[in-house]
Design goal:
Layout lengths: L1 H6 L4 E5 L12 E5 L3 E9 L2 E8 L2 E10 L7 H10 L8 E6 L9 E2 L6 H14 L2 E2 L9 E2 L9 E2 L2 E5 L1 H6 L4 E9 L2 E9 L7 H29 L7 E5 L1
Parallel strand pairs: 5-6, 13-14
Antiparallel strand pairs: 1-2, 3-4, 4-5, 6-11, 7-10, 8-11, 9-10, 12-13
Helix pairs in contact: 2-3
Length: about 240
Amino acid sequence: MEKIKQKIKFTSGFTVECEGEGRRRRWGLALLWKNELTVAVKSFSLNHIDVGVGSQGNDEWRFTSVYGHPEDENKYKTGVLLESLKGSDDKPWLFGGDFNLMLHSGEKIGGRSFCVEEAEILRNAMSYYHFEDLGFIGHSYMWTNNRGGEENIQERLDRFFANQLWRERCSWARFLLISLREGRIIYLSYCVLKKLCQSKRKKSCIVLEKCGSVMKTVLRLFRRLGNEEGTYVRKLHLLLLV
């Protein structure tokens, strides 16, 4: 991760190391930032990183990145994690990642029936923290099993929430989803846009190009490091402020 941080010109970072070896490696989280921000890690686990974020002239806000348990029998643990993160309610809070959970049946195509019990895990967290789903610009389904016809399954598992204080502070924010596909793997990049004006197509294209360029650089490094160190990336999230 240190090589990646240097290549994309980020100055600081925090990493939660993977478990296992070679192709059996799993989990692993990383948060990178530049010197303009002051970041203090509050807590972390194999499934989350929780930080306070400050910048010159602005009050601190909170960012929590989550990777939910993918196994059906362990999804309740994601709910336990979400509830355990409760802290002070007096700060703007952005909360997002791959929860491996959906909110409603419209976020799923194909496969087994939509599971209301699993959806309640995420719904309860939203209610508990008074979060609002911030939505996104891009394709509606971020995960697919890459099969054709009736066997195809697509789901929306990735999202960002925020409390009212963060929404008021960052009312300009728009989340743009960019996906790159390599074989059976889809890499996702979230760009937090200060503005996305359809009438200014040139500016929008510059933003897309910037996000895509950083993403491709990271992917090239991951492929090279994977060959050298036995690291295999199944999913990559980038959250860029542009």
